[in-house]
Write a structure and sequence with these properties.
With about 170 residues, the chain is mainly α. It has seven helices and no strands. The chain has one domain. The longest helix has about 35 residues. It is elongated, with a radius of gyration of 20 Å. The two termini are about 30 Å apart.
Length: about 170
């Protein structure tokens, strides 16, 4: 199961990286088209879709690598069972919020599909298409938070070295 979950997190991150490359391509196309005096409609909109997709799909991978910003002032002041209890409470709240975020992101994509909602730009992109990446990214993030909570409850959650966290900031 661990290998499957890690594959899902890494796969979402790989797709996010591909969207980042696509974003670079859109920006370069926009710059080149301006320099050569021709217009490619929708490049700004598609760049925005790709940026949002990359950000959402990378959330779970970032969480699992301990790279999300955490305010640890209170957590570092606690010891023993208090610290573990606060960690479980925090992960529980974060899991609840992530599940709600995933639910409403999926609902938004579904409703956009049902109502045939399109972008206001000249390309008239059906909005459910870029919203799928947001929905998928939030579902994987919710899965990652459930994973973190279960691992904490089982006492198998890996702790990051404080020195490593300081180096990353």
């Amino acid at each position: 199961m661990r290998r499957l979950l890690d594959f899902v997190y890494d796969g979402a991150a790989a797709v996010a990286a591909l969207f980042m490359v696509g974003l670079l391509g859109m920006v370069l196309l926009s710059i080149i088209s301006r320099q050569l005096h021709f217009h490619v409609p929708g490049t700004d909109a598609y760049a925005g879709y790709l940026m949002a997709a990359a950000g959402f799909l990378a959330l779970a991978h970032t969480l699992k690598r301990g790279e999300h910003i955490r305010v640890t002032l209170l957590l570092n002041a606690l010891k023993g069972r208090w610290k573990q209890g606060f960690e479980i409470w925090s992960l529980g709240i974060a899991t609840l919020l992530a599940v709600l975020f995933a639910y409403y992101s999926c609902k938004l994509a579904w409703q956009s599909h049902e109502f045939h909602d399109i972008s206001t730009g000249s390309d008239a992109t059906p909005l459910w298409i870029p919203q799928i990446a947001m929905a998928l990214g939030t579902v994987v993030l919710a899965l990652a938070f459930v994973d973190e909570l279960v691992m904490e409850l089982l006492g198998r959650r890996t702790r990051r070295n404080p020195d490593e966290q300081l180096r990353n900031e």
